[in-house]
Design brief:
The protein has about 325 residues and is an alpha/beta fold. Helices cover about 30% and strands about 20% of the residues. The strands form five sheets. Strands 8-7-9-10 form a four-stranded parallel β-sheet, sandwiched between helices. Strands 12-11-13-14 form a four-stranded parallel β-sheet, with helices on both faces. A two-stranded antiparallel sheet has the order 1-2.
Amino acid sequence: DGDEETTDGEETPDDTTPDDGGEETPDDGGEETPDDTTPDDGGEETPDDGGEELPEGVYDLGGNVQLDVNEACPGSWDPMQGLTDDEILIGMSLPESGALASFGPLDDGMQIYFDNAEPIDGRKVRVISADDAYDPGRTETNVEELIDTEGVFAFANSVGTASTLRIRGLLDEECIPRVFPSTGAPDFGDPADYPFVNNGLLSYAAEALAWCEDIAATLGDGATVGAIYQNNDFGKAYQRAFEECAPENGIEIVESQLPDPASPDIASELTTIAAANPAALVVGTTSIYCPQSVIGIRSNNIDPEIYVSATCAIIGLFWQPQG
């Protein structure tokens, strides 16, 4: 109460309480401001991470890109489309017939995965798929039907550069996400112009550059290379990138072949490449053409270093059946 004396005869001021070290501690309850906050004029703590609260409906996509769904999406857009109390509907369009039918089991694999996974916010994922036979026109039709009749929440893991390019604008106009498409074309990963479609694989351009650098390191300056690229947007993405990096790495491209993606085999193209006797072969194609490239080039009695697309990396489907 202000009139008591301490043991050393000094009075204790009214607004302090002695601690064990004899230092005064304010009794007004004031706490020190933590290092990671700065008090503002109203006495509230403001985080120092520089985060800015965005208006409702505006999202930061990174790289100084923001998406305002209020402006970008149609008036009929429903962000809860494809979500029920216990399900998330995911659409897929992929080749379950034709030359690239080996990609067909992707939908089954995805469904099996989610059947054995924990629910997402109490919801299980249900995959609804349709066969497009690797035809971009059929892909577009499938996607339109899955939107109109099934009301899917998003599309995932569909196959093909040309097919994904065909529906990119449609999905962005409808504000329906397309996540992890099975393409590494450099055309994707453009959130400024197409915020609802991302990339799913390593960029084909980056992969081609890795081939160039490894061929130069392994075979040295002046290495000769034969190339086989699928004759569509997918294969030509490899072709453009490899032909750009080859001169910089001292590589001579002695033969390039672009078979039609619907061809049953690529034996004649490989015979043409083998006649040039390249020290390395690059394979910018996929599916059954991956093992065909290895078997076919060696059946011509040459044994080059062989670099295959990352899209060839489904061992059980592409390689094991060929022994």
